[in-house]
């Protein structure tokens, strides 16, 4: 499998926000989102065996929370799934596994113990049309979260309508964990760790959420407020 980086920091988003986490970042992505903040993952990377990844994770112990991200980790499904099963079988450490994915690739074979953060692309991403497999909705569990990155009102209304059509009933009956609404960041943010680097004003987004009564939570990328927004490996 080809990795861009493997490091320990704190989780910047999702319901695990603020929790120490080991990030395993895969190389390669088959989408090109307009607001992408990890274009450095599109090419390159270094090949790692499963044993080498395990060794690096163990070297960063103690830290039982692990996130697989990218790029798009499911492009490495053949190598990733056995790695997940091996980590889940470790009864000594009892790892909690997360994966951030676009939902463009089938998710049915991902172990149900893995917390999936599925990023449904909105129109402002430029990758919305046909990228999300609605069949992946059947693979979601109460551990999983669905994320929408928003640039403007058009993106919000797309997310609102998707939530109402596909997710509200799953939230109500407990078959999906959380819905996350996250303002996009500028492609070229300043070094200042402020909300001015967000493309969508968080206050506006909160007003819209409250007006529509969506079963969702505001999700800010806290690592971009703790460190400079362009900093990697955090």
Strand segment tally: 9
CATH superfamily caption: Aldolase class I
Radius of gyration: 17 Å
* Main sheet makeup: 9 strands, mixed
**Per CATH, which architecture?**
Alpha-Beta Barrel
Number of distinct helices:
5
- Overall residue-averaged pLDDT value: 95
Identify the notable features of this structure and list them briefly.
TIM Barrel; nine-stranded mixed β-sheet; alpha/beta; 21% strand
Structural notes for this entry:
The chain is globular and about 50 Å long. The protein has one domain (2-226): TIM Barrel (Alpha-Beta Barrel), CATH 3.20.20. It is an alpha/beta fold and 234 residues long. The chain has helices at 50-59, 77-88, 153-172, 202-212, 223-226; strands spanning 2-10, 20-26, 46-47, 65-69, 96-101, 115-119, 145-150, 178-183, 217-218. It has a 9-stranded mixed β-sheet with strand order 3-1-2-4-5-6-7-8-9, covered by helices on one side.
Quick structural gist:
With 234 residues, the protein is an alpha/beta fold.
Topology summary:
Layout: E1 2-10, E2 20-26, E3 46-47, H1 50-59, E4 65-69, H2 77-88, E5 96-101, E6 115-119, E7 145-150, H3 153-172, E8 178-183, H4 202-212, E9 217-218, H5 223-226
Parallel strand pairs: 2-4, 4-5, 5-6, 6-7, 7-8, 8-9
Antiparallel strand pairs: 1-2, 1-3
GO biological process, one term: tRNA queuosine(34) biosynthetic process
InterPro entries: 7-CO-7-deazaguanine_synth-like (IPR024924), Aldolase_TIM (IPR013785), rSAM (IPR007197), rSAM_sf (IPR058240)
Binding site for substrate: 10-12, 25, 69
């Amino acid at each position: 499998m080809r990795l861009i980086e493997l490091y320990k920091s704190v989780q910047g988003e999702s319901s695990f926000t603020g929790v120490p986490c080991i990030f395993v970042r895969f190389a390669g992505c088959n989408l090109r989102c307009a607001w992408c903040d990890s274009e450095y993952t599109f090419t390159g990377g270094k090949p790692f065996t499963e044993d080498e990844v395990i060794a690096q994770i163990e070297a960063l112990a103690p830290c039982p929370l692990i996130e697989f991200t990218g790029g798009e980790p499911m492009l490495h499904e053949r190598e990733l799934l056995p790695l997940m099963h091996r980590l889940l079988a470790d009864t000594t450490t009892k790892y909690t596994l997360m994966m951030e994915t676009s939902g463009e690739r089938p998710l049915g074979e991902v172990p149900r113990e893995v917390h999936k953060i599925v990023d449904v692309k909105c129109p402002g991403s430029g990758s919305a049309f046909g990228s999300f497999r609605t069949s992946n909705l059947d693979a979601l569990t109460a551990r999983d979260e669905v994320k929408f990155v928003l640039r403007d009102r058009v993106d919000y209304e797309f997310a609102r309508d998707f939530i109402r059509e596909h997710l509200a009933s799953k939230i109500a009956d407990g078959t999906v964990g959380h819905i996350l609404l996250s303002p996009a960041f500028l492609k070229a943010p300043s070094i200042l760790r402020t909300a001015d680097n967000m493309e969508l004003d968080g206050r506006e987004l909160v007003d819209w959420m409250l007006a529509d009564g969506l079963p969702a939570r505001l999700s800010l990328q806290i690592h971009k407020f703790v460190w400079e927004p362009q900093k990697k490996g955090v």
